[in-house]
Amino acid sequence: MNAPIGRLADSLTLPQPYLLFLGDTTEAGYAKTAFGLADWAADRCVGELGVAGCTVSAGLPRLSPAEARAAGARSLVIGVANQGGVISESWVAALVEAMEAGLDIISGLHTRLTSVPALVEASRHTGQRLIDVRTPPPSIPIGNGRKRSGKRLLTVGTDCALGKKYTALALHRAFVARGIDADFRATGQTGIMIAGGGIPMDAVVSDFEAGAAEILSPDAPDDHWDLIEGQGSIFNPAYAAVSLGLLHGSQPDVFVVCHDPSRRVILGMESFALPSIEEVIDLTIRLGSRTNPAIRCGGVSLNTSSMGVGEAEALIGAERRRLGLPVADPIRGGAAFDALVENCLA
């Protein structure tokens, strides 16, 4: 399947390959768009570009806009997903330089590219396009809670930016490898760029969140699975509304909890402690059962990227025994991930 979704996907013909823009980012969690594209669409990325102060890298060659254009790039993608989704004043000169080098600008931020006068003027005299991806389709209905056919899996998290998209993509790849009819359903700007369609859930008016999730994952054959990219966390004081609307509208049969064991507080909100995995499982079942009484936890996805192999394997094993559920790092794969996949399908 993997058919584009609605009018958003129909209009989402992005100029490729990409130069990934990292801005002046110092926190890897705020460069998740760049990391996501580098990891899941590497064949569409030629390099990366940062400005003064940037300490983050997606592991690609550092190129100037002119060098990237000479290497075949057709657009610069803003690879930053910062708090509030804003375009920093310190980025503008580099974005203008990219347009003057012959690159279109693609953004998934809340701030519209067309709201920045210098970019509009550069677009006017260079002829390069300003492309905003974070645009929901028109005429989204309110949710109705009707039970839909087909099967659904939703990734949920203890926080933002810790692996929900990667987990859904890895599970989708594993399902397809097993011969299962499955779609990855993107709900954020990076996922949409990777998949070629989806709905940016955090750009949808709150009253229509559940309805957007319902049309994102419509009726399907009984043996079909939708692997739905989660957003935020129902424990996040800022973003819980998006997470709850997505949970109710997705009506997941199975959910996987995503967690970064190195994190102790909510990203960008250090006065709030991270919830435990058990708290997330309990509240997700209680809230999710409103639209799917049969909802269950398929297991736990740990982001162990900050750990060595031995430490990661020891933690995965300890958490599996403690929780009584499959626990794995989907990027590391192996037998632990196979067990997670099988339990989700059980």
Explain how this protein is built.
This protein has helices at 6-11, 32-40, 65-70, 92-100, 117-126, 164-177, 189-195, 209-216, 240-250, 277-288, 309-323, 334-345, and strands at residues 18-23, 45-50, 75-78, 104-107, 130-132, 151-157, 182-185, 225-228, 254-259, 265-266, 269-273, 296-302, 327-328. The chain has 346 residues and is of the alpha/beta class. The protein has two domains: 6-132, NAD(P)-binding Rossmann-like Domain (Rossmann fold, 3-Layer(aba) Sandwich); 151-345, P-loop containing nucleotide triphosphate hydrolases (Rossmann fold, 3-Layer(aba) Sandwich). The strands form three sheets. The protein has a six-stranded parallel β-sheet, sandwiched between helices. Strands 2-1-3-4-5 form a five-stranded parallel β-sheet, with helices on both faces. A two-stranded antiparallel ribbon has the order 10-11. Helix 11 links the parallel strand 12 (296-302) and strand 13 (327-328). Helix 2 runs parallel beside helix 7.
